[in-house]
Amino acid sequence: MTETTPEALAAELCALLTIEELDTDLYRGASRREGWGRVFGGQVIAQGLQAAQASTEAPKIAHSLHAYFMRPGAEDHPIIYRVVRDFDGGSFATRRVIAMQKGVPILSMTVSLQRPEDGLAHQEPMPEVPAPEGLPSDLALRQAMADQVPEKFRRGFLRARPIETRPVSARNPFKPEKGEPRQASWFRIAAPIGDDPAMHRAILAYASDMALLSTALLPHGVNWMTHPLQTASLDHAVWLHEPFRADDWLLYVCESPWSGHGRGFNRGRVYARDGRLVASTTQEGLIRMRAER
C-alpha cells in the first residue's frame, strides 16, 4: 500500500474544503473519489458551510447549521452551492444553502452567523477519559485486523485518512457486541494547518459526521460489515460554541437516546483538550435492516 504523509493528507482535505466562487452567491466544490460511489455527507456539510461563510462579511462568524440530506452525492461530479441571503442584521445573519448535482438538490442547509459578543456562560463538563497519546490510532487498529477483511475491501479499509481518530474504547467491527449507546473518541486533522478559523470550523463540520450514526447501532450489536444493513444520514446539525483548532486533539462524545421505525437519533459533544465545550451536534439517520441474502 502506498504511504501518504500526514501533511499531504491534511493539505488534500483543506483543498477539498476550499470552494471556488463562480458568481455572486454561487460556488463549486470538488468531489473526491473514495471508491464508495457516493460523497461523504460531512464533505457536503463542510463545503456548504464554507459557502455560507464566504458570503458573509466579518466580524460575523458561523455558530450553527441545520442540514437535510435529500439524495446521495455522486463522486464523479462537482457540487454546486447556491447561497440565499435570507437575513442580515446587526448581530446575526442567516444563509440558506442548496447543494446541487446534475440540476437537482442533494442537500439543503441553513446557517446562522453572529457578531461576537460576551454573555452569561456555563457548560457541561468534559468527561474523564484517557489522553489521546496513550491510545492506539484508528489506523493501527484497522491494520491489526486486516486479515479479517475480504481482499476486495482491504485497500479501502487500510487507507490512511486525513482525520486521525483514537477511540477511547476500541471495538472489533467484525465481532459487534451489544452495549450502551454511547462512545467517545479523540480526533484531529492529520497535520498542522494554517490559522484560518473558517477552515477549522469546516474541518470540524466534516469530522462531525464520522461517528454519530454508528452510535445508534451499539445497543443492537449490528453494523454494515456484518449484517445486511442500510444506513444513511437524514439530517445533521452543528452548534459552534467556542474557538478551537482542528489540528489539535478534540474529544467527540456521542450518545443515542432513541432508535425506532428504521431511524436512529444521535447527539454529540466536542471538547477541546483544555475542557472547553466547543461544539454540539445532533443527527438522525436511516438504520434499516434488510433481509439476509
Write down how many β-strands occur, each being a DSSP E stretch of 2 or more residues.
Answer: 12
Strand order of the largest sheet: 1-2-4-5-6-3-9-12-11-10-8-7
Beta-strand residue fraction: 35-45%
Which structural class matches the secondary elements?
Answer: alpha+beta
Broad shape: globular
Reported for the largest beta sheet, the result is:
12 strands, antiparallel
What is the string of SSEs from the N terminus onward?
Answer: HEEHEEEEHHEEHHEEEE
The pLDDT mean sits at 93
Taking the alpha carbons of the first and last residues, their distance comes to 32 Å
Instruction: Specify Rg, calculated over alpha carbons.
Output: 19 Å
User: Count of helical segments?
Assistant: 6
The helical percent reads 10-25%
Which residues form runs of ≥5 with pLDDT under 50?
none
Question: Gist?
Answer:
The protein has helices at 6-16, 41-54, 138-144, 151-157, 197-207, 212-215; strands at 20-23, 26-29, 61-69, 79-88, 92-101, 104-114, 163-167, 182-189, 229-240, 250-260, 263-272, 277-289.
